[in-house]
Amino acid sequence: MSKKKEKRILTGDRPTGKLHLGHYVGSLQNRVELQDEYDTFLIIADVQALTTNFDRPEKLSEDVRQVARDYLAAGIDPEKTTIFVQSLVPEIAELTIFYSMIVTVNQLRHNPTIKSEAEQYGYKEMSYGFLGYPVSQAADITFCRANLVPVGEDQIPHIEQTRKIVRKFNNMYGEVFPEPEALISDFPRLMGLDGKNKMSKSLNNAIYLSDSKEEVQQKIMQAKTDPARIHKDDPGHPEVCTVYHYHEAFNSEESDEIAEKCRAGTIGCVACKKRLAEKLNAFLDPMRERRKKYLENPELVDQILMDGTAKAREEAQKTMEKVREVMKIDYFSK
């Protein structure tokens, strides 16, 4: 008989397209590694995806399944991890409303992630849903009373906002929720292929978990390197090279040797890129094999999502019974 997992993880993604290597090193790798140790809930946050894709809701049907396939390909085990769809757990929306009563607009306006994303999307005026995204995320994290949240570096302000909401709710009404902690990976922010910005779908500088071998090779050969290095035998500066940054993340056993050769001018950028492409493709090959199973049997993905969502709803209902009780709004339950 397996030992009961005492602590719980909640983490997930907005289904806005394919997941990339930045997602993997930012939090997905931790999710895979920790699913044996923690009771893990993995949310596909389709409602939150509407904060920036409200004019294209028809995309969500495929995007939800795409993200689920990326999870399963990366090694998430549905026997160990509960994968569920946010919009199909209405208790999360209810908890969001309750939380919105104890969070001020000024707190949300000063959230650095909200400010940077509003600038990125060119929003001169923010919608209610976009501004309230951190409140919705707090409900996502706490509906199952999670203890730990593996996230990328850019999500830390949201976790801090969640902790504030939890403290305020518990102090006002009674202890219901644990105060969740963020778990940051060894590579919380992966540089994009352009060498200027973090890896991002919207900036077209990403290597996707679903990319073919040929796509990976092509993208790596176009990646930015040390701009000061013109000739093959010029001494290089690996610390400013995007390709070397990827070696550190995905080829750690050879990264020191590659850095030494780069500084000595004994390995050229082309050879360095070819070696990285080989390593990345070897890393992605098991994912490709797992993904093939789910592409050939799409009904398996739907069943995993339906089963996980049913389990998440059960947990959400338990939480909301307690929430209504401490708020004294369980009018007809006695």
Automatic annotation (TrEMBL):
Subcellular location: Cytoplasm
Assembly and interaction partners: Homodimer.
Functional description taken from the UniProt entry: Catalyzes the attachment of tryptophan to tRNA(Trp).
Presence of the UniProt keyword Aminoacyl-tRNA synthetase in the record: yes
PANTHER family: TRYPTOPHAN--TRNA LIGASE, MITOCHONDRIAL (PTHR43766:SF1)
Gene Ontology BP annotations: tryptophanyl-tRNA aminoacylation
KW Nucleus (keyword) present: no
EC number: 6.1.1.2
GO cellular component: cytosol
Binding positions for L-tryptophan per the UniProt entry: 140
GO molecular function annotation: ATP binding; tryptophan-tRNA ligase activity
Family indicated by similarity: Belongs to the class-I aminoacyl-tRNA synthetase family.
Native organism: Halanaerobium kushneri
Motif 'KMSKS' region per UniProt: ranges: 198-202
Main location: cytoplasm
CDD domains reported in the protein's UniProt record: TrpRS_core
Pfam families: tRNA-synt_1b
Catalysis: reaction(s): tRNA(Trp) + L-tryptophan + ATP = L-tryptophyl-tRNA(Trp) + AMP + diphosphate + H(+)
Protein name, per record: Tryptophan--tRNA ligase
Protein residues bound to ATP: 14-16, 22-23, 152-154, 190, 198-202
InterPro entries per record: aa-tRNA-synth_I_CS, aa-tRNA-synth_Ic, Rossmann-like_a/b/a_fold, Trp-tRNA-ligase, Trp-tRNA-ligase_bac-type, Trp-tRNA_synthetase
Motif annotated as 'HIGH' region, chain positions: 15-23
